[in-house]
Amino acid sequence: MTNRVSTEWKGGMAFESNNPSGLTIRIDAGEENGGSDDGLRPKALMLSSLAGCSGLDVASLIEKMKLEVDRFHIETIANLTDEHPKYYDKVVVEYHFHGSNLNEAKLQRAVDLSIEKYCGVMEMFRRFAELELKTIFHTD
């Protein structure tokens, strides 16, 4: 299967990029790099892609397992190298589950399945970054 994305320069440091879904996003640099600070940053988008890919897996498994979760969010914290080309060499991914009746074992299984089997973006990150994965349960 091949994905195709078209990214068009909109002047200055801004670009608009489409997605196979038909939706578009705006990409721009910060003012410190000649942009107008009016769009998403490319490297940060990679972290959003990582969280989104794994999050979709986990959300699907929460539904299939009929688990009770009041709130679920993912924090990604990445270290950028000092030398050009700068890239993420270490990434921490924290899965946060909130609720009063969390089945921690099944939720951990859902996270593990995403990490080990389903999330292709996670596999891509493994090729260039050291990953640290944490699951945090918040019982209300």
UniProtKB/TrEMBL annotation:
SUPFAM superfamilies (UniProt xref) = OsmC-like
InterPro entries per UniProt: KH_dom-like_a/b, OsmC/Ohr_fam, OsmC/Ohrsf
* Coiled coil segments of this chain: none
Q: Which PANTHER family match?
A: PROTEIN YHFA
Organism source for this protein? Aureicoccus marinus
Which named protein is this? Osmotically inducible protein OsmC
